[in-house]
Amino acid sequence: MESIGLLLIFWYGILHAFGPDHLTAIADFSIGKNKRKTMTITTMFAIGHGVSLFIFAKVLETYNISEDILGYGDIISALVIFGMGVYLLFLVFTNRINLNKHVHDGVEHVHIYFGKEHTHSNKDVTSAFTIGTLMGIGGVRGMLVTLGLVEAASVDFSMVLAFTLGVMLIFIGFGAVILYINSNLLTSLKNIKRVFTFAGLVSLVVGSNILLG
Q: Who has the most CB within 10 Å: 45, 55, 75, 161?
């Protein structure tokens, strides 16, 4: 595919990533995480998003699926965001968010964990990939319309890669913003609960607007 077409798709990926549902999901998963995990989460979310779009785009090339059925993808995305909001508020109001400060090699570390014990786990990274994949279903229609404008041929990997890189650029940049919040605001349990409450309420509003829109 010509480079100009790939640039257009890359630009569309950037615009697509600015959707409030995507940024809300990134924020929900990245709040309270360290630098490495925050960047990993945002990257995995973008990759999951791109993989999902590629798979569903290939399916739609083979099967003629009605617009009504494709519309359920938006509902899935909205339900994911709404559910995440409910979960964050549940953590706040049931006092399941904990803060642990300790020192490694003379440097103070702040760990935020949920439940009774602090453990190191990659479940949130896997979950970010899964959620990114699910939310990709809601973006299939828009991406296919854009791809149709630049090339009538079938969707190939280079096209989806260009889209995914555009999405990833914004997601990682937004992850850096969340990382700043993690480092400068989440230093007390009171502030942590405030930030999680705000993120939960935003998720409810964004999810509700998509469902009612």
A: 45
Residue with tokens 């803060």: 99
Give the length of the chain: 213
Structure tokens that stand for 145 in this block = 């319309």
Q: What is the CA radius of gyration of the chain?
A: 19
Q: Contact 112/97 with Cβ under 8 angstroms? A: yes
Instruction: Give the model confidence (pLDDT) of 166-209 as tens digits.
Output: 888 888 888 888 888 877 877 788 888 888 899 889 989 988 98
SS (H, E, C) the chain: CCHHHHHHHHHHHHHHHCCHHHHHHHHHHHCCCCHHHHHHHHHHHHHHHHHHHHHHHHHHHHCCCCHHHHHHHHHHHHHHHHHHHHHHHHHHHCCCEEEEEEEECCEEEEEEEECCCCCCCCHHHHHHHHHHHHHHHHHHHHHHHHHHHHCCCCCCHHHHHHHHHHHHHHHHHHHHHHHHHHHHCCCCHHHHHHHHHHHHHHHHHHHHHHHHC
What is the crossing angle of helices 189-212 and 20-30, to 10°? 150
